[in-house]
Amino acid sequence: MTSVGYLPILIFILIALAFPFIAFFLAWFIRPNRPEAVKLERYECGIESSGEVWGRYSVQYYVIAVLFLIFDVETVFLFPWAVRYDALGLFGLIEMGIFILILVVAYAYAWKKGALEWA
Amino acid sequence: MEAQFLMFLALAAVALAASVMVITRRNLVHSALYLIVTFFAVAAIYVLLHAEFLGVVQLLVYAGGIMVLFLFVILLVERPGTGPAGKPMRWHAAASGVLTLLVAAILGAHFLRSGMAPPGGTAVLGASGGNLETVSLALFRNYLLPFEVVSVLLLVALVGAIVLARPRA
């Protein structure tokens, strides 16, 4: 590993780790501390919170997550193809065309089954 | 070489410690967050081994995609302890211990038998340009069929998820 090449990334990681600590410390140092019942309640976008903290959510979120994951993986394969586009030529283009076509079928299926609609 | 070995030890220690936290936390969300630490440490080990593309994929797919899936699944399940009580896990611990040792033995034997990688890092990758370029040419020329099968696998995964999640009529 060329350690010099990854030095900027290491510095980024250190800054990212230090940032929340500094922010919390500064806030704790500066802010006044006057707790009251309303302030200590759970925060829910400013409205009064209702129900349990651990509620159960619609299973549709899961389908959306799987959709995201599938097209995430598609990107992973598009990337190396795009880098060597010239060397792979028409053959590579057809290959990737078939790959994307099958995923378009997946997308069309999801669309037709109403997985993208929020009822 | 020495520095690389020390880096590997540090990253492996982080990955192991975070993995232990994943399986010992009671709060599922805490487990998921520690799992992200494990993913990052493994990605860093990939980079250390000059598998930069694999490292990026590890972050993109596991720390990004798989993690979203895990968190959504945590949203879907009931709060632990509210459902019917599970069976006591007396023999589970012993069984998983034996299984872990078995997997470790198989992997260890495999690593001992396969020789060391040739030294020299990226120089070994040759004239093709670099890590990503080599992966690209191997994937799209030699491993054509597995690549296309991946898209079918993704299609099946999506259809399966939609069928499982459809409302009961």
Overview of this structure, please?
The complex is a heterodimer of chains A (119) and B (169). Chain A has one domain (7-112): NADH:ubiquinone/plastoquinone oxidoreductase, chain 3 (Methane Monooxygenase Hydroxylase, Chain G, domain 1, Up-down Bundle), CATH 1.20.58.1610. In chain A, 64% of the residues lie in helices and 0% in strands. Chain A contains 3 helices and no strands. The longest helix of chain A has 28 residues, at 85-112. The mean pLDDT of chain A is 84. With 169 residues, chain B is an all-alpha fold. Chain B folds into 2 domains: 1-78, NADH-ubiquinone/plastoquinone oxidoreductase chain 6, subunit NuoJ (Four Helix Bundle (Hemerythrin (Met), subunit A)); 127-169. In chain B, helix 1 packs antiparallel against helix 2 (28-48) and helix 2 runs antiparallel to helix 3. Chain B is globular, with a radius of gyration of 20 Å.
Distance between the termini of chain B: 63 Å
CATH architecture assignment name of the largest domain in chain B: Up-down Bundle
CA-based gyration radius of chain B: 20 Å
Oligomer: heterodimer
Q: Tell me the number of strands of chain A.
A: 0
Q: Spans of chain B with pLDDT under 50 lasting ≥5 residues?
A: none
Which structural class best describes the helix and strand composition of chain B? Answer: mainly alpha
Give the strand tally of chain B.
Answer: 0
The name CATH uses for the topology of the largest domain in chain B is Four Helix Bundle (Hemerythrin (Met), subunit A)
The main β sheet of chain B shows up as: none
Helix segment tally of chain A: 3
Briefly say what this structure is.
The complex is a heterodimer of chains A (119) and B (169). Chain A is an all-alpha fold and 119 residues long.
List keywords for this structure.
heterodimer; A: 119 residues; Methane Monooxygenase Hydroxylase, Chain G, domain 1; 64% helix; flat; B: 169 residues; mainly alpha; Four Helix Bundle (Hemerythrin (Met), subunit A); 75% helix; 0% strand
